[in-house]
Design the sequence.
């Protein structure tokens, strides 16, 4: 039995890893796509992450075939969450700033909630209605702030790609909820997801990119891509699941709100992206709306749970 306190340095490190690393993911993507075509960034990131997980599985002697049924589940999950959601987000960031991408992506829980209600997985309530209304107000402020940018066809396509990405993420989440899929070895499943997504995305990269421009890939962009694979995909994943073994999932979910704030702040600080008053208001409404929908009293309780 252990308490959620700062005295547990491993837990503290895990939580900071998730908050900081996932908060820098959108920043990393933006830097990577400066000189590397988006599908190459996404594909190499997933493939490299898969290779890292493979080495871990081989070291633990846990690499094995998961069966065709489970493999089919992983293919569907990988397609929705990695190929569509992560891939289209990466493509979108060729035209859309990382701060705006992180803020729009923060609306994903709203779409997940509405989809869960549609499939009878959750019940609608007055609190949920308030949360959706608040988030919708935030979305209005986003487009009010960037209304002039909508005249740019590339920008419009970037927003459209983000909408597809959110749809993919929400579909993957709802798919998991609907089938109530349980996993005995999450790391093993993750290996198949990464490898499948990486291969498919690299096929997209070679078939959809007119000029690969390998000689123009900058060291900064390559470093960002490696960072996304090693830390954004692998390290943060293990840190997240370590945290789940020490504190409740509800408490860990608070990090989702921190990630968005960190992402926006770092995009302003390191990339010099413009953050207007309307953008800050939009962020406030969206984060508040998502928080209202997902609020649970256990979020702030210092409760004891079993150590696994």
Sequence:
């Amino acid at each position: 039995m252990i308490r959620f306190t700062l005295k547990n340095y491993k837990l503290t490190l895990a939580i900071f890893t998730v908050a900081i690393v996932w908060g820098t993911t959108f920043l990393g993507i933006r830097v990577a796509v400066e000189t590397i075509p988006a599908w190459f960034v996404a594909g190499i990131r997933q493939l490299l992450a898969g290779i890292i997980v493979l080495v871990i599985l081989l070291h633990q002697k846990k690499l094995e075939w998961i069966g065709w049924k489970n493999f089919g589940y992983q293919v569907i999950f990988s397609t929705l969450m990695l190929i569509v959601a992560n891939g289209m987000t990466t493509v979108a960031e060729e035209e859309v700033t990382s701060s705006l991408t992180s803020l729009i992506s923060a609306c994903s829980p709203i779409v997940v909630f509405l989809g869960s209600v549609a499939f009878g997985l959750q019940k609608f309530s007055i609190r949920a209605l308030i949360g959706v209304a608040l988030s919708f107000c935030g979305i209005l402020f986003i487009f009010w702030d960037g209304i002039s940018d909508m005249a740019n066809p590339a920008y419009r396509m970037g927003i459209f790609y983000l909408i597809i990405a959110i749809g993919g993420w929400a579909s993957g989440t709802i798919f998991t909820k609907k089938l109530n899929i349980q996993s005995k070895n999450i790391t093993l499943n993750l290996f198949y997801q990464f490898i499948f997504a990486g291969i498919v995305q690299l096929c997209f990269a070679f078939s959809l990119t007119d000029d690969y421009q390998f000689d123009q890939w900058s060291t900064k962009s390559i470093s960002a891509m490696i960072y996304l694979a090693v830390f954004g995909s692998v390290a943060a994943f293990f840190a997240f699941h370590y945290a789940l073994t020490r504190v409740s999932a509800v408490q860990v979910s608070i990090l989702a709100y921190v990630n968005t704030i960190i992402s926006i702040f770092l995009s302003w600080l390191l990339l010099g992206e413009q953050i207007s008053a309307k953008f800050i208001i939009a962020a406030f409404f969206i984060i508040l709306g998502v928080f209202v929908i997902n609020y649970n009293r256990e979020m702030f309780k210092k409760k004891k749970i079993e150590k696994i």
The chain has one domain: 9-300.
